[in-house]
Every structure is written in C-alpha cells, then in structure tokens.
Specification:
The structure is a single chain. The chain has one domain: 3-Layer(aba) Sandwich (Rossmann fold), CATH 3.40.50.150. 37% of the residues lie in helices and 22% in strands. It contains 11 helices and 11 strands. The strands form 2 sheets. The protein has a 7-stranded mixed beta sheet, sandwiched between helices. The two termini are 25 Å apart.
Length: 307
C-alpha cells in the first residue's frame, strides 16, 4: 500500500507521516513483527520502572485507576445489549489490573499479554485467564468469543491496527457485541497551542507526544472516527478525559519540567475524586462529552459495534 503524506516528522530515527491513504499520523516504514515482538516481550515493561502511570497500576495508591475502571464498566454496561453474557477479552492485559477489576465485578474474563515480564507478574499475583502471545496469535490461542473486547491503549502500539480490528470483528465478538477502545488524543488543538506558546522556543519539545517505537499510530477525535468507519465499526459512545494540557497552559509546565508531572496528576485525581464523592456522574459525563465534541481531552474512550 502506498502512503502519500501531507507532513512528516522525524523522531528517534523514525519517520512519522500524516498519511493521506490511512487518514491519520503513523510511523513509515513500520517496524517488522519480529522487531515489535522483541520490543514488547523483552523490553517494554522493563523500561517503564520510572513511569508511575504504569507502576501505579499494581497497587493504585491514589485510587485513580479504580475511578477510571468504574467509569469504563458503567459505560460498557449502558451500551451492552440485553441478553449478552458478561464476558470480556482484554487485548494487551498489562499487569491484569483491569481484568482483575472486571472479574471482581462478576465478569468472565480472558486476556492476552505480549510482554513476558507482565505476563509472569500476572501469573504470580492473580488467578486470571491471561495467555502469553502477540496479536498475530489472537486466532490461535483458543479464546472464546465474548460480549466485550477491550483495547486499552493498544492500537497506538500496533504496526497493523486494521488487521487486529478485523480479527476482533470476525472471530472474537459475539453478535451485537461491543469493543471498548482507549487511546491518546494526539495532534489536538491544545497541543498545537502549547507548541505555539510556552514550547515555541524549545525545539526538543516540539511534538512532545510523538515517541516511536512505543507509539506507532496517532489519532485525534476526528481521525479515529474515520478509521473505525473504514474498519466497519459503528461508534455508540465517544468521550474523553481531563485535558492534561491545561496544566502547562496554566503555568505548570510538566512537559519541560517532568518533575512537576506528579503534582499535576494528583490535582487531576483530586478533581475526579470530588466528582465521585458527590455522585456527580451525570455532570462528569456531560463535561467530558463536551470536551470530546471540542476535540480536546488527553485520552479518548470509544465504544463501538460492528456495522
């Protein structure tokens, strides 16, 4: 497939293009399956020791992930057809934290994890049906079709996300089942404003959210809609979360000064907790849906079904 492009960015010895054929930014040429499998099996989690957004998932010291997972379960339940079993397959199970939450909530759970490090930790900590393997092996590992397939921060890591959604559609979803997708909202208007203002003189921080080979694909609110339609999925629900770009725009520049990132995160957690304590679910859903319509919010959360 040819990949004519409008713009190009070079980073970490990779070329990232604004592809006219695919309709979104992605690395070109893509790493091979062998290169990616080696990276995720042996290197990915081992290089995240200082990334608290990953290590916090093991114990959730701030209660942040509990709030996230309760929101996900609420939205999934609202959009699941009556009569379908409470069964879920999590592709890219990570440390098993989300699957553990869903199992405790009474769901039948299955998972796939390509990192040996994370898989061994799951086996040691939890009695979960998580299988070690890559997305290329999805049809070979004996997974039962389920009502819900989750792709929590997975599509941005794949060299062929279209193929994975095809497998989900054809082999892994029960009729009328749904897919839940979480992924970063990149090349959004707030990121553009940051580059034109506080990061204007900082050449190293331009396009700071682009970091291959960890992330190979980059979607915005607009481009993910087109991508899912081309993959024969109909969006049922689309929301976002807190626009973390607000913090550097208000003076807490954690992009230039990463040591400020923890404080920004805890302020966001405090906001979420206050909404939870006051049972302000309707207000929260309305607020984040409004952000989504504006194309802002750090991450996107999408529920879709087969057209």
């Amino acid at each position: 497939m040819d990949h004519p492009y409008k713009e190009v960015i070079s980073k970490n010895d990779y070329r990232i293009i604004n592809c006219e054929s695919c309709g979104y930014w992605h690395v070109n040429p893509m790493p091979t399956n062998e290169e990616l499998n080696l990276y995720y099996e042996k290197k990915y989690y081992e290089t995240l020791g200082d990334n608290r957004s990953m290590t916090d998932k093991l114990d959730d010291p701030d209660g942040f992930y509990r709030i996230q997972y309760e929101d996900r379960l609420r939205h999934i339940t609202k959009n699941l057809c009556d009569g379908l079993p409470r069964s879920i397959l999590d592709i890219g199970a990570g440390y098993g934290d989300f699957l553990n939450f869903m199992k405790t909530a009474g769901w039948e759970t299955q998972g796939l994890e390509p990192s040996r490090h994370a898989y061994e930790l799951i086996k040691e900590r939890d009695a979960l049906d998580v299988r070690f393997g890559t997305v290329d092996e999805l049809t070979d590992l004996g997974f039962n079709p389920v009502s819900v397939v989750t792709l929590n921060n997975v599509l941005e890591h794949l060299n062929n996300p279209q193929r994975v959604l095809e497998i989900v559609r054809e082999y892994l979803l029960l009729p009328k089942g749904i897919v839940f997708i979480a992924l970063p909202n990149d090349f959004n208007v707030l990121q553009d404003i940051l580059m034109q203002t506080i990061l204007k003189g900082n050449r190293d921080k331009q396009h700071y959210w682009v970091h291959p080979p960890e992330h190979l694909n980059y979607w915005s609110h607009k481009t993910i809609r087109g991508f899912l339609k081309r993959c024969s999925f109909e969006i049922l629900y689309f929301t976002t979360d807190f626009p973390m770009e607000f913090f550097p725009l208000m003076g807490e520049d954690y992009i230039t000064r990463p040591e400020e990132g923890r404080n920004a995160h805890l302020k966001r957690v405090s906001f979420e907790k206050h909404l939870q304590e006051t049972m302000s679910e309707e207000f929260k859903d309305s607020l984040y849906s409004s952000f989504a319509k504006m194309g802002i919010g750090r991450d996107m959360y999408i529920i879709a079904t087969v057209e």
